[in-house]
Design a protein that fits this description.
about 55% helix; 5 helices; mainly alpha
Length: about 240
């Protein structure tokens, strides 16, 4: 592959020396610096105008607020109305209810202090008798309900018991599939989560014997007890 080089002739007036090229470059740089300075000054002037406009708007808002306060147009209307008797009756009812509440709280406090003082002076047998009586009364108020076979247990919560109607519901009632009597099912189906992958082979602990004498851990524990008894016969007799 051949490459041809074409020589181009420049006249003397078209030729530029190194010094002339440097002068041209410096002149262009000065022009660029001047343009950048001019743009920066314009940006500063725009920012100053925006700040000045904000200051003027804030001053105008402050003056309007001062005028409104001086006029009293934004103040709360605390003037007395014509229905003074109605207002007085409402205040009287509020004050009576407050006094009654204060008296009741004070009586409850003194009653509680008297009960604590009386309880401190009682013997242990008397305290146990009172606690048994309270437990009996609580059981009579809320008798233990009989649960259905394999019924799920739902706890209603112990940290908050408000006066809302939802907290007075009977949470021991069966719901969903627990409404069906599972005692009529075949024995193989009387399991929790029957038919699911997470089912268990046990019905409940009452119906199962969890004692395993052929367990390795149980046998190992018995051997260790026997070994300790042989090494320390006096300590084993004490136990």
């Amino acid at each position: 592959m051949l490459i041809y080089i074409n020589n181009i002739f420049f006249f003397r007036g078209q030729r530029a020396t190194l010094s002339q090229q440097a002068e041209i470059i410096s002149a262009k740089e000065e022009d660029n610096d001047e343009e950048a300075y001019r743009l920066a000054e314009l940006e500063k002037e725009k920012k100053a105008e925006v700040i000045y406009a904000n200051i003027l708007s804030e001053k105008a808002a402050e003056e309007e607020a001062k005028k409104a306060v001086d006029d009293g147009s934004n103040l709360i209307d605390d003037t007395d109305k014509d229905d003074d008797e109605v207002e007085y009756e409402m205040w009287r009812q509020r004050e009576l209810s407050r006094i009654q509440r204060t008296i009741q709280e004070r009586e409850d406090f003194f009653k509680q202090q008297e009960e604590l003082t009386h309880r401190d002076q009682m013997t242990e047998e008397e305290r146990n008798a009172i606690e048994e009586l309270h437990l009996k009364e609580a059981a009579e108020k809320q008798p233990k309900r009989k649960w259905k076979f394999l019924q799920k247990y739902y706890h209603k919560g112990a940290f908050f018991q408000g006066e809302d109607e939802i907290y007075e519901r009977d949470y021991s009632k069966p719901t969903g599939e627990d409404r069906f009597d599972k005692e009529n099912l075949p024995g193989v189906m009387q399991k929790k989560r029957w038919g699911l992958k997470s089912n268990t082979k046990y019905t409940h602990l009452v119906a199962e014997d969890t004692t395993r004498f052929d367990d390795n851990l149980f046998l190992e524990g018995q051997l260790q007890k026997t070994k300790r008894g042989r090494e320390n016969p006096k300590e084993e007799r004490r136990k």
